[in-house]
Amino acid sequence: MKTQTKANILSTVLLAGLVTTTAWAATPVLTDTDNDGVISAEEIQAAREQAKAARLTQFDTDGDGTLSDDEKSAMKEARKAERLSLNDTDGDGRLSRAERRAAKAARRAAIETQLDVNQDGVVSDAEGAGFDQIREERKGRKHGDRKGKRQSRDTE
């Protein structure tokens, strides 16, 4: 069957909510696995891959190892519902600009807490270097993609 009914998608979303309590709101669990006092870019990437694998396991309802459009839709709806339930502080059923900003600040604080491996309340340059490296790599890919698309349109 190519498409699921809304009821099946809703069931998937509800089941996903029961299986995991904060799969989306929580930042990936960053761990200094090699005990060198910092969380490296490689350790951050490993945490991201682990979170991605968990999402695949959670939402790949047909077990084929990939997410179909319906499974992606269910994942997106679960993410939206969880963000709303965790961040809708006034209970109006939508996220205001202030609520979105507060959620972003909370995510940033959670990341900084994890990066502060020695727990001195300050993310040193060494502790933040892995995160900075990941951020720069992502920026480079985004800018490279835009340039590549622009160039390919110009040459057509």
**In which range does the helix fraction lie?**
55-70%
Q: Unreliable runs, pLDDT <50, ≥5 residues?
A: 1-26, 148-156
What is the assembly state of the chains in this entry? single chain
What is the domain total for the residues?
A: 1
Gyration radius (Cα, Å) is 19 Å
Distance between the termini: 39 Å
The secondary structure category is mainly alpha
Sheet of most strands: none
Number of DSSP strand runs? 0
Short précis:
By secondary structure, the chain is mainly α. It has helices at 6-19, 41-59, 69-87, 97-115, 125-155.
Structural notes for this entry:
This protein is mainly α. The chain has one domain (6-155). The protein is 65% helix and 0% strand. It has helices at residues 6-19, 41-59, 69-87, 97-115, 125-155. Helix 1 (6-19) crosses helix 3 and helix 2 crosses helix 5.
Question: What keywords describe this structure?
Answer:
globular; disordered N terminus; mainly alpha; disordered C terminus; 5 helices; 65% helix; 156 residues
Question: What's the topology here?
Answer:
Layout: H1 6-19, H2 41-59, H3 69-87, H4 97-115, H5 125-155
